[in-house]
């Protein structure tokens, strides 16, 4: 993976000049609350469901890592051409 490789995000958290943010409904629903905990490092922010324990959060991060890898592969590979008579389903 090179420095220019990027993945397409699911969405964005938008902030205004005062620093207030709109958290998408899908995130609020997934977390089950309007108080969403997060951890941050130099380049990444992790929002997580406060009901999860540490091992569940770590397992979820593993799933997320695999999802990002899959997205990168999908964006690099050209779409497969179907042969006559083939369907996508």
Domain unit count: 1
Computed CA radius of gyration, to the nearest angstrom: 18 Å
The rounded distance between the terminal residues' Cα atoms is 31 Å
Number of strands: 4
Our count of helices gives 2
**Strand ordering within the main sheet:** 1-2
Helix amount, in percent? 25-40%
> Which series of helices and strands comes N to C?
EEHEEH
Report the biggest beta sheet as strand number plus sense, adding barrel if it closes. Answer: 2 strands, antiparallel
Q: Which ranges are low-confidence, i.e. pLDDT below 50, for 5 or more consecutive residues?
A: none
How is this structure best described in words?
By secondary structure, this protein is of the alpha+beta class. It has one domain (14-76). Helix content is 34%, strand content 11%. The longest helix has 23 residues, at 54-76. The model has no long low-confidence stretch (mean pLDDT 84).
Brief account:
The chain is α+β, with helices and mostly antiparallel strands and 89 residues long. The protein is 34% helix and 11% strand.
Helix and strand topology:
Blueprint: E1 14-15, E2 21-22, H1 25-31, E3 38-40, E4 45-47, H2 54-76
Question: What keyword list fits this structure?
Answer:
two-stranded antiparallel ribbon; 2 helices; elongated
């Amino acid at each position: 993976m090179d420095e220019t490789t990027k993945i397409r995000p699911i969405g964005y958290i938008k902030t205004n000049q005062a620093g207030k943010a709109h958290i998408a409904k899908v995130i609020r629903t997934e977390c089950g609350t309007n108080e969403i905990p997060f951890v941050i490092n130099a380049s990444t922010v992790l929002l997580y469901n406060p009901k999860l324990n540490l091992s569940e959060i770590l397992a979820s991060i593993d799933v997320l890592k695999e999802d990002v890898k899959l997205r990168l592969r999908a964006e690099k590979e050209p779409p497969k051409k179907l042969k006559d008579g083939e369907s996508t389903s």
